[in-house]
Amino acid sequence: MRSLAPKFIKEWLTLIREKGLKAFIREKGWKVLIAFFLFYLIRDGILYLLIPYLIVNNIIQCQ
């Protein structure tokens, strides 16, 4: 089965499998932290800001 993961994710997973989590964090430290932060920033922005805004905006226009 073909995987749809991006290339950098595949590289990160092989690095974790080969060298372990500590070596992975030492080698890719800030990049992983930034990727983790951006993922949750985007996810929470959509969940807690965009979806409620669209719901309220649609409810107000329907009346």
* Overall geometric form: elongated
Give helix % range: over 70%
**Content-based structural category:** mainly alpha
Estimate the strand proportion: under 5%
What is shown here, in short?
The chain has helices at 7-19, 21-62.
Descriptive account of the structure:
With 63 residues, the chain is mainly alpha-helical. It has one domain (7-62). The chain has helices at residues 7-19, 21-62. The longest helix has 42 residues, at 21-62. 0% of the residues are buried. The mean pLDDT is 83.
What's the layout of helices and strands?
Blueprint: H1 7-19, H2 21-62
What distinguishing features does this structure have?
single chain, 63 residues, mainly alpha
